[in-house]
Automatic annotation (TrEMBL):
Source taxon at top rank: Eukaryota
Organism: Hippolais icterina (icterine warbler)
GO cellular component: mitochondrial inner membrane
PROSITE patterns, per the entry: THIOREDOXIN_2
Lineage: Eukaryota, Metazoa, Chordata, Craniata, Vertebrata
Gene Ontology MF terms in the entry: metal ion binding
Keywords: Copper, Disulfide bond, Metal-binding
Location(s), subcellular: Mitochondrion inner membrane
UniProt topology in membrane: Single-pass membrane protein
Pfam family, one: SCO1-SenC
GO BP field: mitochondrial respiratory chain complex IV assembly
Protein name, per record: SCO2 protein
PANTHER family the UniProt entry points to: ELECTRON TRANSPORT PROTIN SCO1/SENC FAMILY MEMBER, PROTEIN SCO2 HOMOLOG, MITOCHONDRIAL
Length: 190
């Protein structure tokens, strides 16, 4: 019975991974710059688990809440030294205002290893499109300020760079950490 149960679980995981690949989320590469100006590609993060969030520094409430949750989930996972390393990433959807200096100032309030990425509008648009992230800048007010409407999801990529899961606003940091741990525990390299 245990053997059959184990086989059924392996088949379920295999089907899920096949379905995720069919979605083609995050399978493309991106070319952005981190806060020190270093060019970064998706391939730079191969070999590590990645939690990736798209947002912007002028966001009044959603992005700070999601980054706080992401930071807490990473802290929970880091508390177990048996787990593999995890890299938190933040990709701006507002490259007009979010240059390297703005990202650096903004991200220092969150997890110390949270890496911010920015680039040209075309590069950012391509990175968002690879994950099918919706992005739309709203109208400017009299001060020239605006809000950027965007998908609110945190993506989990495995060490092979394959999309494994995503987490919306309704998930708590504890739920995200538990899910990531489950993916880490059941991970088999491609």
């Amino acid at each position: 019975w245990l053997y059959l149960r184990h086989q059924k679980e392996r088949q379920r995981r295999s089907r899920r991974l096949r379905d995720l690949r069919a979605l083609a989320l995050g399978q493309g590469d991106f070319e952005l710059r981190d806060t020190s100006g270093t060019p970064r590609r998706k391939a730079d993060f191969l070999g590590r688990w990645v939690l990736l969030y798209f947002g912007f520094t002028h966001c009044p409430d959603v992005c700070p809440e999601e980054l706080e949750k992401l930071s807490r989930a990473v802290e929970l996972l880091e508390s177990d030294p048996a787990l593999p390393p995890l890299q938190p990433l933040f990709v701006t959807v507002d490259p007009e205002r979010d240059d390297a200096a703005a990202l650096s100032r903004y991200l220092r309030d969150f997890h110390p290893r949270l890496l911010g990425l920015t680039g040209s509008p075309e590069q950012v648009r391509a990175a968002a499109a690879a994950f099918r992230v919706y992005v739309s800048a709203g109208p400017r007010d009299q001060d020239g300020d605006y809000v950027v409407d965007h998908s609110v999801l945190t993506f989990l990529l495995d060490p092979d760079g394959v999309f494994r899961d995503c987490y919306g606003r309704s998930r708590t940091a504890e739920e995200v950490a538990r899910s990531v741990r489950g993916h880490m525990d059941s991970y088999e390299t491609l």
